[in-house]
Amino acid sequence: MVLKQAAEVGEAVKTLLLEEELTVEQMSMDLNISKQLGSHIKNDRRRMQQDVAKASIQAYDCPAYATDLIHEFSGGYTPPVLRGKAVDWENRLAVEDFAVREVQEVIAILENIRPILNRKPGETTKEERERIAQVTDEIYDAEAALANLKITLAKNYNIPLKKRHENRKVVWKAKEWFA
């Protein structure tokens, strides 16, 4: 994956301004950019450069904003903030139900394809490889649902996700999951 050098992130900036109760002027000062550039970025008249995006993620702990930014700069490789009408995103229990449902779907499919996964990849049929590809689709869905649940919980309970992430990295290193 190659990160984009610049991306249109006006909607993400609007989210940041709303959730952090910032003005374009304050954000621009925080990011060491002109007020005019801040306004242009907010209104998608200019793309945000990668260095400004990095500085903004370091400056603010706004999970929806960071998720939107990372999604845009990664070319869609990471899950987006889901804002569709199928889930009441303001209702943390609805978001939790959605996430649980998506994770349960992945678990059910994985249990179903366990015999396929026990074999070497070269010994699988075309149909079996398609079933494995389908489980990756479901994993994407679950990953997006969990990312959005994390955003919802952080917002509702004022949980600083950057700090939580740093704490988890220590745990992952101790468990030898992360080098």
Give the low-confidence spans: none
Strand residue content: under 5%
Overall average residue pLDDT: 96
Specify the biggest β-sheet: 2 strands, antiparallel
Q: How far from one another are the termini?
A: 20 Å
Listing every helix as H and every strand as E from the N terminus to the C terminus, the arrangement reads EHHHEHHHHH
Describe what this molecule looks like in 3D.
It is a single chain. This protein has 179 residues and is mostly helical. The protein has 2 domains: 6-73, Orthogonal Bundle (434 Repressor (Amino-terminal Domain)), CATH 1.10.260.40; 92-174. Helices cover 66% and strands 2% of the residues. It has 8 helices and 2 strands, in the order βαααβααααα. The chain has a two-stranded antiparallel ribbon. Helix 1 packs antiparallel against helix 5, helix 4 (50-59) packs antiparallel against helix 5 (63-73) and helix 6 runs antiparallel to helix 7. It starts with 5 loop residues before the first strand and ends in a 5-residue tail after the last helix. The model has no long low-confidence stretch (mean pLDDT 96).
Give a short summary of the structure:
With 179 residues, this protein is an all-alpha fold. The chain has eight helices and two strands; from the N terminus they run βαααβααααα. It is 66% helix and 2% strand.
Task: Please write out the topology.
Layout: E1 6-7, H1 10-20, H2 24-30, H3 35-42, E2 48-49, H4 50-59, H5 63-73, H6 92-117, H7 126-157, H8 161-174
Antiparallel strand pairs: 1-2
